[in-house]
Amino acid sequence: ETKIWRVAPHNFSIDELQEAAQLIREGKLVAFPTETVYGLGANALDVQAVQGIFRAKGRPSDNPLIVHIASLDELTPLVSDFPPMAQKMAKLFWPGPLTMILPASNQVPAEVTAGLSTVAIRMPSHPVARELIRSAQVPIAAPSANRSGKPSPTTAGHVRQDLWGRVDGLVDGGECTVGLESTVVDVTGDHPVILRPGGITREMLSIHFEGVEVDGEPSVTKAISERPSEATTEHCLLETNGEAASPDSSAPRSPGMKYAHYAPKAPVYLLTGSWKEQVQAITVLLEKETDPLGLLISAETYEHIKHLLPQECGSKYQVRLAGSREDLRSVAYRLFGSLRSFDETPVTAIIAESYPREGIGMALMNRLTKAAGGRIWRE
Ligand code: TXA
Ligand code: MG
Predict the structure, then answer these.
(1) ipTM exceeding 0.95?
(2) Staple 95 to which of 12, 125, 248, 369, CB 3.0 to 4.6 Å?
(3) YrdC-like domain location, by residue (predicted)?
(4) For ligand 1, is residue 196 a contact (CB within 6 Å)?
């Protein structure tokens, strides 16, 4: 049985979260909204509760969890060091969609860190998340509230689809505004290393910090500029995201990056090249493709190809407007919901538009590439 509480994210009283907070304190599982995606929360200091998270999600136990806090005082017992660079980053970007990898204290269960010496910490900005943590009076360990492998949930409805009956409670606080998971930054070294791109972009970090690195990024530039032939493109694309492209490639620094992710039921294929080339590719495909297809495209692309779509309803094409190329945050925020929505349709493949890897575009392309499992659309 999953208990649901509906709360208006900007107009709720503390009382409305009392029961949910109490369940967390008792070691139960409660899903809740954050500004990025919904989290599946449990008391981070309760080993059995944390084990419950892995069971409910079907998550491999070697993939560590993010610990969510509501104020900086809660950080102190969780870490063995809070270096100046991390303090500065917290001042600039917390609360918000940023997770810092810090040296763990011995208070943090190995179930949370998957046995690593570091712990991932985030202070979310969502008012419901903050109040839930505050009222639970314990730090909350929370991965995204999806079954492992599926797109992360950006509405309570998505959480219901995946975890109904598998969790004790669900706080429904409406839609998540960022729509992609937090940026994970390793701040244990001399300069920040982005392990997972997200809402806080490399550009935003680079304004304040020198030598910001993106894990897996140097090979990207190399892979793209030295791309020898069409045939290797697929392989290059896999590498661009710091994913394990082949079994012998070195272990990713963020354990979660090696798993299949965000996959709807039908295979996703990414379009590549300039926007014009992508529009051209869709045009060609609409002229000859006969299978039911899903199209995840920008408003701009839709304008160019809509005259090619059959007018009758129940057409074999399922179009999802991803947002505008002029505003990649609008695309980011719809991505996971759009991917999920194809599961209720008979499409046998999903063709997705690509975007520039700048700003939020880097996180967007990271998730899209994973959803596609590196597949590229070729005629
Ligand atoms: O936006 C978010 O971050 C959401 C919301 C709920 O806060 N949470 C989320 O958690 O996306 P999850 O478990 O789906 O992703 C956590 C990521 C994984 O890639 C994991 O490997 C990485 O953070 N991670 C956790 N602890 C780590 C550590 N000590 N060192 C390196 N990576 C770590
Ligand atoms: Mg996740």
Answers:
(1) yes
(2) 125
(3) 14-200
(4) yes
Ligand 1: which residue has its CA nearest to atom 6? 39
Backbone angles phi, psi at 125, to 5 degrees: -100, -10
Q: How would you list the strands of the sheet with 268-270, edge to edge?
A: 268-270, 349-352, 293-297, 317-321
Here the tokens at position 322 are: 């991803």
263-290 pLDDT per residue, tens: 899 999 999 999 999 999 999 999 887 7
Q: Which of the ligands is closest to the CA of residue 65? A: 1
Give the tens place of pLDDT for each residue, 120-145.
Answer: 999 999 999 999 999 999 999 999 99
Query: Which domains are present in the chain?
Result: 3-188 (3.90.870.10), 218-371 (3.40.50.11030)
For ligand 2, an ion, list residues with CB under 5 A. 144
User: Which ligand lies nearest to the CA atom of residue 64 in the structure?
Assistant: 1
* Cα 336 to Cα 153: distance, rounded to the nearest angstrom: 7
Show the beta-strand stretches assigned E in the chain. Answer: 3-6, 30-32, 39-43, 66-68, 98-103, 118-122, 140-141, 169-172, 183-186, 193-196, 213-214, 268-270, 293-297, 317-321, 349-352
Q: Using a 6 Å cutoff on CB, does residue 118 contact ligand 1?
A: yes
Residue nearest to atom 19 of ligand 1 (CA): 256
The pTM of this model reads 0.90
40 CA closest ligand 1 atom index: 6
| 120 ligand 1 Cβ < 6 A | yes
